[in-house]
DNA sequence: CTCAATCGTTCCGTTTACGGAACGAACCAT
DNA sequence: ATGGTTCGTTCCGTAAACGGAACGATTGAG
């Protein structure tokens, strides 16, 4: 038993049975063996990415629906240990001219988190959903409450802090142009 | 030489090098062999789910950051004005291969908003900051409460609704691949 | 220069995920 | 009953994903 064995088996079986499809039929339409699908649903196999794509495709669901517990918290990534800001990387989009990173950010109250300048052209976009965030260029920070959105150029020193006693929660979208 | 080579190799290498970690070091901290990680980055292997979890965990990113859906087919901008859902466009990023739209979304309770399929390759990413949202594929919607994040392929019918008496507030990031 | 350390790739034996086939069980028609 | 069909599981040979070790290339120290 793998400690990390997410229970994709029962989730898969539930998805399949919700559609009234038999195991044999799904295996056929996914182009995989019945033995593979059976073992996958029973949790006795450690599937290959190719197998997962085949099954997800046949079910018409994104791979994330198969692999992730809906609403389960993703892995916590503490970027700056012991600092005011912790962030979790939710999604990464690699584009030819830029990389987008979507993060969930938690800012503890009472501390001002300084961030060094990023590369030229990097912009940060924050949408606050709890607390009051004070963030942006170090010499001219912006304020945002729940539901509000602020953005700034990140190629100069910038800060994150809160206003009031509560921590702030927000999503952070970072756009980084590709380096030459 | 997989017929269906998802491009997780280059994405993985990029993520690793962005952190300044060597292949050997990442393999060690992930508890996998160097040969496995090398082959994975070179795209010559078809990784196991267990391997993917090990690597994603060691990098501190969710598995979705590694296995984003491959497709990059045509696009068509369909916006969904509806009674239950109102949205405010915050930012638009035009990239050569994709357009990103960042919106703030408000979903009223008691109504289920149906959305027709978007073009293939369009993905939607929602971060909830108030209320409980039930959204995603019409036949397998996902649940998300405050602070939680869900995403799905938008090329099949999908819905937005709330759970409970309160309206839901969220940010919505739509990624639309550009016409090929 | 030599030597040691570390880089990423390749080689290779072991482990295991794969699909085809066989299996018993359940069901339906005759 | 009886034969035919489909169900999900198990058996088994093959293909390949795995980790350890060896490789050449590169780097840094003395």
From TrEMBL, chains A, B:
Q: Which keywords belong to this entry? A: DNA-binding
**PROSITE patterns to which the protein is assigned, alphabetical:** HTH_CROC1
Every copy of the HTH cro/C1-type domain together lies at 12-66
**One GO CC term on file:** cytosol
Q: State the InterPro entries in the record.
A: Cro/C1-type_HTH (IPR001387), Lambda_DNA-bd_dom_sf (IPR010982), RmlC-like_jellyroll (IPR014710), RmlC_Cupin_sf (IPR011051), TransReg_Diox_bact_type (IPR050807)
Family annotation (Gene3D superfamilies) = Jelly Rolls, lambda repressor-like DNA-binding domains
Q: Which GO terms describe its molecular function?
A: DNA binding; DNA-binding transcription factor activity
Name-wise, this protein is: Transcriptional regulator, contains XRE-family HTH domain
Question: From which organism does this entry originate?
Answer: Nonomuraea jiangxiensis
């Amino acid at each position: 038993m793998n400690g990390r064995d997410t229970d994709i088996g029962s989730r898969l079986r539930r998805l399949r049975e919700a559609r009234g499809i038999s195991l044999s039929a799904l295996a056929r339409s996914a182009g995989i063996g019945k033995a593979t699908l059976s073992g996958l649903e029973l949790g006795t196999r450690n599937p290959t990415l190719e197998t997962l794509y085949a099954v997800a495709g046949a079910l018409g669901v994104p791979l994330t629906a198969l692999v992730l517990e809906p609403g389960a918290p993703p892995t916590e990534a503490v970027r700056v240990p012991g600092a005011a800001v912790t962030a979790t990387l939710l999604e990464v989009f690699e584009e030819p001219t830029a990389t987008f990173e979507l993060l969930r950010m938690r800012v503890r109250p009472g501390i001002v988190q300084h961030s060094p300048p990023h590369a030229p052209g990097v912009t940060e976009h924050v949408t606050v959903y709890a607390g009051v965030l004070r963030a942006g260029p170090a010499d001219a920070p912006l304020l945002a409450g729940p539901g509000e959105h602020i953005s700034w150029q990140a190629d100069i020193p910038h800060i994150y802090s809160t206003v009031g006693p509560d921590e702030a929660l927000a999503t952070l979208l970072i756009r980084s142009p590709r380096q030459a």
